[in-house]
Amino acid sequence: MLFINKIILLLSLILLITNHSSNKVTATRQIKQIETNKIITDTQPKAPVLLIPGFGGSKLEAKLTDFKSKHWYCHSNKDWFLLWVSLDMFVPVVADCSMEYISLAWDGKSPQSQEGTEFRVVSGVDGVVYLDPTIHFENYYLNMVNELKKEGYQENLDLFAAPYDFRLSPKNLTLYFNQLKNLVEYSYKIDKKKVTLVCHSMGCKMTTFFLTQQTQEWKDTNIEQLIAIAPAIGGAFEGLRSVLFGNNFGDDLMTNKDFQSLAISWPGIYFNIPYDTKLWTIPIAVSDNKKYYSTNQDYHQLFTDLGLPEKSHQILDYVWDDNQNIKNPNVKLRILYGYGSKTHYQVVFKDKTLNDSVEYVDTSGDGVLLEELVLNYCKGWTDNESASCQGFKGVTHQDLVSNKDVISSVMDLIKEQ
Question: Does the entry feature the keyword Metal-binding, yes or no (predicted)?
Fold first, then answer.
């Protein structure tokens, strides 16, 4: 592993030197359009499937124009390039630049791209199969897509994907939701077959938000079912941990603190913190003399006690309303979840100063989502006979999407139509 890391560092430094472009270009900030070009084919279309990725599951491309970095070795100008996720993102020195590019500025009212940066999402199925297209080190929806293709599915005919900028919260994604609605309608109109939505993690929360904004008539006409894999509907402790302390998600080349500044600047992270006190009844954090619950008021107090910057309070409030709009989507719902893995649900501060000396309390889950929380949604949102839940022991949060048993269940649910 160490040898591989050294190779990655060497290659990244070479790329840094050879690709330092002086090309100056200007363009408006955009989210890449969801691809809806119909394939000309004699094949009878199947009931369409639309994939929606979770947090970090979309490829983001960036463009730099007169970007002013704190580091002399970072690009100032560079045409469109893959930023999330590429190996450079996680390599020391080069990562300093990537962190600057991909962080969001906060003007006190809303998030903005850093001055001199533009971003777009890689559209379609290609945007979710692999996160890094060069050496394919992160297989995401690939196994599922391959199984669908074995059954005759074709991209842009009956197989679609709708990646999005996961750094943002729903109120920043109006254009995306409009495109998603258009894509669902387009998919349905190809052969008048209802669409199966397959989502993962934060993508399920985004999809639920989207569906609650649609009329029941629209859902009854266009949506066959929602297959929710590890749905982060009620939030996840790891989201809060990212804001409080940073979270390198297992990448040994970066520290937790390196990622904390990103987490604090991304509204999408706050959209993922636990918020539903009806389900998350236990305190989220505990010190010698205080308990903090998953309420807006307690989060503000916790942020203050930890000395987080003012913008963390502002972004928390900015996103809070989005979380309150997460309701039963009122479509046929299938939940697939993992259990039996240690999953954090509470942080315990070992002294009154609330410093970095902390312990985490674990319970059963998929390593990110609590089993109990998912089961509560199974019970609370199964007021119609079409809803169902299926657990997979020992399958972790990210692996659920590529696990053969989970994919087999997804395929069975699709074939039931």
Answer: no
Token readout for 330 is 């009122």
CB 293 within 8 A of CB 283: yes
**217 CA to centre of own chain:** 28
Say if CB 265 and CB 104 are below 8 A apart: yes
Residue 218 is encoded by which pair of tokens? 């629209």
Answer for the pair 170, 177: CB distance below 8 angstroms, yes or no: yes
Q: pLDDT grade, residue 26 (50/70/90)?
A: very low
Cβ distance 233 to 204 under 8 Å?
yes
pLDDT at 133 over 90: no
* The 3-state secondary structure of 363-397, one letter per residue: EEEECCCEHHHHHHHHHHCCCCCCCEEEEEECCCC
Instruction: Please provide the distance, in angstroms rounded to a whole number, between the alpha carbons at the two ends of the chain.
Output: 45
* 133-137, 157-161, 324-328, 398-402: segment of lowest average pLDDT: 133-137
CB distance 341 to 367 below 8 Å: yes
The widest CA-to-CA distance across the chain, in whole angstroms, is 69
**pTM check: above 0.90:** no
Find out whether 362 and 345 touch, Cβ atoms under 8 Å. yes
Give the C-alpha separation, 71 to 97, whole Å: 7
Count of CB atoms within 10 A of residue 241's CB?
Answer: 22
Q: Are 260 and 303 in contact (CB under 8 A)?
A: no
Provide CB contacts within 8 A for 276, sequence distance 6+: 234, 235, 294, 323, 326
d(CA 63, CA 77): 8
**For the chain, counts of helices (H) and of strands (E):** 14, 15
Q: Which residue in the block uniquely carries the two structure tokens 């998912």?
A: 374
Residues 225, 413 contacting (CB under 8 angstroms) = yes
